[in-house]
Write a structure and sequence with these properties.
Blueprint lengths: L7 E8 L3 H12 L5 E3 L21 E3 L9 E6 L5 E5 L2 E3 L10 H24 L5 H6 L2 H8 L2 H7 L3 H16 L8 H8 L6 E6 L1 H5 L6 E2 L3 E5 L5 E5 L4 E9 L3 H8 L12 E11 L8 E3 L6 E5 L5 E5 L4 H4 E13 L4
Parallel strand pairs: 1-2, 1-11, 2-8, 5-13
Antiparallel strand pairs: 3-7, 4-7, 5-6, 9-10, 10-11, 12-15, 12-16, 13-14, 14-15
């Protein structure tokens, strides 16, 4: 990375080198607008294995991720048909006789998802020019979803049994939380991969930084002062910057710490999920399909990766329940994007 000496005024400062920050930087570049992106790392939540072939954080992208797709290499299509679902000591696939009784509910849910997708994509098309919260508030349908508990939506649409047997398994694997305890808006957004093609991927750092490398500062922001004509930014390495526009493309907890109580935003309780990356052998019950999904009370997901290794995400560590033998490559904790 270039060692340009940055100081003084920048028209726009972007804090954070994850997908959101990179997408913002490339959009500004395309429109010929000056900016500086400040981040100690590029890729954000996209953690990878030591060889870079297995993602630990952000696991998939969908065909709708317009600003993410240019920065990744698609590895494989993620199919929910290639998995075991587990519940009450039983295992079953998506396309099993068990699904027949759920077909009316599944049709209702996927119809709702397709309708939501149209509204959601329309909103995202405007989000580079208007605050997302403002766009949600201006659309009655999205606004109602934003304030409605998902549990109410599930009950009103008579989806309880479908969720218990299938959907909660998939959503726990997505954001590691009971889907009944979030908003309907969040539930629908997290469920879109059920109606949109989904892919595993490798982060392409070269593509992500192409044409903006000279506008990336390898540093971290330690303090922000919003009181004045200019926004003032102090960094870890002692730089004093100023800007007219500030983009905080960071986890909300970090953004709130930097902004202080006068500008902080409400947050959900943070969610930390632990995981293993291992080479080994699954017990017979879990062998076969690429993935094993479990209900909320079990709090686990198993995924076989392209290189034959396995990821095991969990709430409680029962690795010996699932593997007859294993060698640990990585054992760590990851904070999800929900927090």
């Amino acid at each position: 990375m270039p060692t340009t000496t940055w100081d003084g005024f920048q028209e726009t400062i972007i804090v954070g080198g994850g997908m959101a920050g990179l997408g913002c930087a490339h959009r500004l570049r395309q429109h010929g607008q000056p900016f500086l992106l400040v981040s100690p790392e590029i890729g954000g939540r996209v953690r990878t294995s030591p060889d870079g072939r297995v993602n630990y954080g952000a696991y998939y992208v969908t065909a709708d991720y317009d600003w993410t797709l240019p920065f990744v290499k698609l590895v494989d299509t993620v199919r929910v048909t290639d998995c075991w679902f587990h519940r009450g000591g039983h295992r079953y696939t998506l396309l099993s006789p068990r699904l027949i009784k759920h077909l009316p509910a599944l049709l209702r849910f996927t119809s709702d998802l397709r309708r939501f997708r149209r509204r959601y994509n329309d909103m995202n098309a405007l989000a580079s020019n208007f605050p997302r919260r403002e766009l949600i508030e201006s659309n009655n349908e999205l606004r109602n979803m934003y304030y409605q508990p998902a549990s109410q939506y599930i009950r009103e649409r008579k989806l309880e049994s479908l969720f218990a047997d299938y959907i909660e398994h998939l959503l726990w694997a997505s954001f590691f939380h009971d889907p009944r305890e979030v908003s309907t808006f969040f539930l629908m957004a997290a469920s879109l991969p059920l109606v949109v093609p989904m892919y595993s991927f490798e982060f392409d750092r070269a593509a992500a930084t192409a044409d903006i490398e000279s506008q990336i500062l390898d540093d971290s922001v330690e303090q922000i002062d919003m009181n004045g004509e200019m926004i003032r930014v102090a960094t870890r390495d002692g730089r004093q910057l100023a800007c007219r526009q500030l983009v905080l493309a960071t986890p909300i907890a970090l953004a709130n710490r930097l902004l202080g109580p006068g500008y902080s935003q409400p947050t959900r309780q943070g969610i930390d999920v632990s995981y293993y990356h291992v080479r080994g052998k699954l017990r017979n019950t879990y062998q076969g399909p690429a993935r094993n999904f479990f209900p909320v009370e079990d709090g686990a997901v198993l995924s076989r990766e392209q290189d034959g290794s396995f990821l095991y995400f969990y709430r409680n560590d029962y690795i010996d329940r699932y593997f007859s033998q294993y060698e640990v490559i990585t054992h760590d904790t990851w904070k999800t994007a929900m927090s």
